């Protein structure tokens, strides 16, 4: 998914861009409205989501939101300072989909992004709703997993871990890469020992023979791989 990020604070922008890319989002970064308007005019069809700071050196996120909504139905989330919050109503009236107040945790922003995108997917379902891995099917729209047609109940972190594997079929993922992408439900990062436990649990729920896994395979000395 491609995200247009417009933020004039370069430190915040760099941190946001890095965090989004770690979650496999592609990003286009701008620091002012002039550049953002050019990109909206030329690349809006390729953009899936817009993150706009409200206060910009040469304009505002309102202008950009209005431009986006006039030229295409793309979701917009405002990034706003606390003092700007009372003005967000105007942006929502323009068609913005959500806002998040600075300072915020990246986990909260990612949750808002996913919530907004789910609403859009419900309005316009996408063809690639399912990911199939052998006898396992992941329904990404409903957040459900099936084995041989029967639903498998996973915890939130188990599902998230499986989704990371499902989105990287055929690729070797190191333990460091997995740890960098997951956290527990309380928002705390998962440690190495806990990751081992969750992979074991996933195998017990998904594999026909967990002791000889064929879905989540260990690549000795490197990490794990799903698929060929």
What does it look like?
This protein is of the alpha/beta class and about 230 residues long. It folds into 2 domains: about 1-125, Response regulator (Rossmann fold), CATH 3.40.50.2300; about 130-225, Orthogonal Bundle (Arc Repressor Mutant, subunit A), CATH 1.10.10. About 40% of the residues lie in helices and about 25% in strands. It has helices at about 10-20, 35-45, 60-70, 90-95, 105-125, 155-165, 175-180, 190-205; strands spanning about 1-5, 25-30, 50-55, 55, 60, 75-80, 100, 130-135, 135-140, 145, 150, 170-175, 215-220, 225. It has a 5-stranded parallel β-sheet, sandwiched between helices. The chain has a 4-stranded antiparallel β-sheet with strand order 8-9-10-11, with helices on one face. The chain has a 3-stranded antiparallel β-sheet with strand order 12-14-13. A hairpin with a 2-residue loop joins strand 10 and strand 11 (about 150). Helix 2 (about 35-45) runs parallel beside helix 3 and helix 6 (about 155-165) crosses helix 8 (about 190-205). The longest helix is centred in the middle third of the chain and has 18 residues, at about 105-125. The relative contact order is 0.09. Residues about 185-190 have low confidence and may be disordered.
* Number of continuous helical runs: 8
Helix content: 40-55%
Number of strands: 14
User: What value does the average pLDDT take?
Assistant: 85
For the biggest sheet, the summary is:
5 strands, parallel
Strand fraction equals 15-25%
Annotated CATH topology of the largest domain: Rossmann fold
Number of domains: 2
User: Any idea what the shape is?
Assistant: elongated
User: Would you tell me the structural class of the helices and strands?
Assistant: alpha/beta
Q: Kindly, what is the distance between the CA atoms of the first and last residues, rounded to a whole number of angstroms?
A: 24 Å
Regions with little confidence, pLDDT below 50 for 5+ residues: 184-188
Strand order of the largest sheet: 2-1-3-6-7
The CATH class designation of the largest domain is Alpha Beta
Q: Give the SSE order as H and E letters.
A: EHEHEEEHEHEHEEEEHEHHEE
Q: Which superfamily, in CATH terms, is the homologous superfamily of the largest domain?
A: Response regulator
> In the CATH classification, which architecture of the largest domain applies?
3-Layer(aba) Sandwich
Rg, nearest Å: 20 Å
